[in-house]
TrEMBL record:
<dbReference type="GO" id="GO:0006520">
    <property type="term" value="P:amino acid metabolic process"/>
</dbReference>
<dbReference type="InterPro" id="IPR027795">
    <property type="entry name" value="CASTOR_ACT_dom"/>
</dbReference>
<protein>
    <recommendedName>
        <fullName>CASTOR ACT domain-containing protein</fullName>
    </recommendedName>
</protein>
<dbReference type="Pfam" id="PF13840">
    <property type="entry name" value="ACT_7"/>
</dbReference>
<dbReference type="InterPro" id="IPR045865">
    <property type="entry name" value="ACT-like_dom_sf"/>
</dbReference>
<dbReference type="GO" id="GO:0046394">
    <property type="term" value="P:carboxylic acid biosynthetic process"/>
</dbReference>
<feature type="region of interest" description="Disordered">
    <location>
        <begin position="177"/>
        <end position="203"/>
    </location>
</feature>
<feature type="compositionally biased region" description="Polar residues">
    <location>
        <begin position="177"/>
        <end position="194"/>
    </location>
</feature>
<dbReference type="InterPro" id="IPR051719">
    <property type="entry name" value="CASTOR_mTORC1"/>
</dbReference>
<feature type="domain" description="CASTOR ACT">
    <location>
        <begin position="103"/>
        <end position="162"/>
    </location>
</feature>
Amino acid sequence: MNTQVSFLEGTYTLIHIPLELYPTLLQPILRILLPQTQSLNFSRDSTEYELEGLTTDFQHGFLNISVTPIECSVVCHSSWAKNVFEPALNALPKPICKGVSISEDTFMILAVTSAGLDPGGRVMELSSPLAFAGIPIFFITTYYSDFILVPTKEKVKVVKALVTKGFELSENQSSFVNSSYAPRNSDSDLSQQPPGTPPPSNYDELQARTFDLLVKNNVKACVEADLELVQCSGRETSPLMNAYSTRPSMSRKSSTDYRRSWITHIDTKLYTCIVSALVSQPRFLSLTLAQDDPPSLLLDKTLLPIFDESLVGDTEGVLIPIFLDLRKLPAKSTGIVCGVAGRLAKGTDVSESSELSYLSTARAGTVILSREQSIRAMEILTPLLTK
């Protein structure tokens, strides 16, 4: 097993939008999705002509837009949250937008590539060292990679937690590699916590704390009737092959025309389909754009006709989402991903839990499993979340 964890450039912001406000705020969501529109109202000398967080071919270094039965959630570069989303929000009457929240803390993103480890194993492998260090995280599984959001101010603790787990820092100090998976088991290596809140000492204690917190806040696991998901990727066309075959730099210096460069490097058919799906107010759609991967989509299977042949992946398969509404939890809760995923893995055969994946949104957690696995998972979670 060989796992590499890399720090993406930039700081990111997490936005929570109540579903009833999604239609009202769809325009700034689409403006973030389509970055070339930002230059239309600015002169080339304007400080806002080029917002941060785009690669040299004018695509997002990272972006996640998720619409679920619980909320709409956006993860975007903090520059876009400040210059695109906040002005749109401020233009609305305060009583209308009071349910929207923009994270005060910024986040950094860890991009994870792993060979020889199943999806369920990756969730545990990657979330556990951060959970034991008391670091709150958001976890996003995509078609190609895994991404972990951690508070920017916790970077030192993150580095220490990964080193404790056996990861080695690369020469340029921008990524970690773990080829042997030989964690060091020393309590002294765990991140220091304030007095009275020591980190959990083992998985059983971590899971017990997690479910105590969920029960205390009356969090239930639920499955939406007739909601079936598929995990897909945007089909690579010739322009996309050129865009994705290299690592686009995050440098902002380029003489190429802004809008022309952007439209050259995207699949316009795919983006038209994505916009159509977002406008339809989908029951479930999670889109992740990352500079090293083609677009990844986890979506309601009934949306597939909109995309026609612009997607690749197991469109015949069925995944079932199990939702945990976390809106009542403290913002800095830790160990949720690891505790829930670990308990499900513990309660099922290893081969049965191998397809487990996880999607964190601003105020919710979604466990994604096969239909058979989801039935077993609900049998495990329901009694644990009952007072």
